[in-house]
Write a structure and sequence with these properties.
Layout (H helix, E strand, L loop, with lengths): L6 H23 L6 H5 L2 H34 L5 H9 L6 H12 L6 H6 L8 H27 L2 H8 L4 H29 L3 H6 L10 H11 L1 H38 L1
Helix pairs in contact: 3-7, 3-9, 3-11, 5-7, 7-9, 8-9, 9-12, 11-12
Length: about 270
């Protein structure tokens, strides 16, 4: 049998859930269902939704490629300043996104530390779709790193040590032992990464601007509609909530089912 929390804590927990749930209920209640199809099918809304999905998927793929090795370095390698390096990697989690956008502008803007040299080569990043992806990677990469670090620390190194002792190369050990063990944590981290990238606003508008079809993602479209058509803003906000909810439910629902299956097997 599951160990239930004390009744008092359960009541407080339910109240905490209500604090999170009530705003979303109000959001749904504020949608005019008769206008919903027209609001969601407008050219500006479709452009923003399509751009958001494309850039968020691209940013998630980039985070997968660079975040997995980064988590391994921070977890499995001992080097001076590792704690400080981890703090730097997690910094985008705590700084305001607009600060991240300013930092990206100072680095890759037309007059930035790196951007001015790229401009000499005819490469402009700021105010392009690439800038949107960079902003999304900047703010969402720590979510994947944190998830993978937790999975690596939980699993330990026993399986990898066994594979290495049997003659497997480090690369083969990673591909055949480490990576399969990381799949649950990797999926959870990718889900959070995608959801964070999809909802990114501050760094995007600061570094990439708001150009329809190029840099105006759905959160930026919501912000603009909030000034001119509040009902459209509510409808577009609902789209973001539904997409994020579906992604998170699919990923975490599978994890919860696997956990329940393991518990059932253990009791059996």
């Amino acid at each position: 049998m599951r160990v239930r929390p004390p009744a008092g804590l359960a009541v407080v927990g339910i109240l905490g859930g209500a604090v999170l749930l009530v705003p979303f209920v109000a959001l749904v209640a504020g949608v005019d269902l008769t206008r919903l199809p027209g609001l969601l099918s407008s050219p500006s809304a479709l452009d923003a939704l399509g751009l958001s999905l494309r850039t968020a998927l691209t940013a998630t793929a980039i985070c997968l490629v660079i975040g997995t090795p980064l988590a391994l370095v921070l977890t499995r390698l001992d080097f001076p300043g590792r704690s400080f390096a981890r703090s730097l990697v997690l910094l985008p989690l705590v700084v305001p996104p607009v600060v991240g956008g300013i930092a990206l502008t100072e680095a890759f803007g037309r007059r930035g530390l790196i951007g001015e040299h790229l401009q000499l080569l005819g490469i402009d990043i700021a105010f392009t779709s690439a800038a949107v992806v960079m902003a999304q990677v900047f703010v969402s990469l720590p979510f994947l790193v944190v998830a993978l670090e937790g999975a690596l620390l939980t699993r330990g190194e026993a399986h990898e040590r066994t594979a290495l002792s049997l003659g497997a190369s480090p690369l083969r050990t990673f591909l055949t032992v480490t990576l399969p063990l990381l799949v649950p944590g990797l999926v959870a981290g990718l889900v959070l990464t995608f959801a964070r990238a999809l909802g990114e606003f501050g760094a995007t508008i600061t570094f990439a601007g708001s150009l329809q079809g190029t840099t105006r993602t759905l959160p930026l479209q919501v912000y603009l509609e909030r000034e001119t058509d509040p009902e459209a803003a509510v409808a577009l906000s609902l789209v973001l909530v539904v997409v994020a909810l579906v992604v998170i439910t699919v990923a975490y629902g599978r994890r919860d089912r696997r956990r329940d299956d393991r518990q059932t097997g253990a009791r059996a």
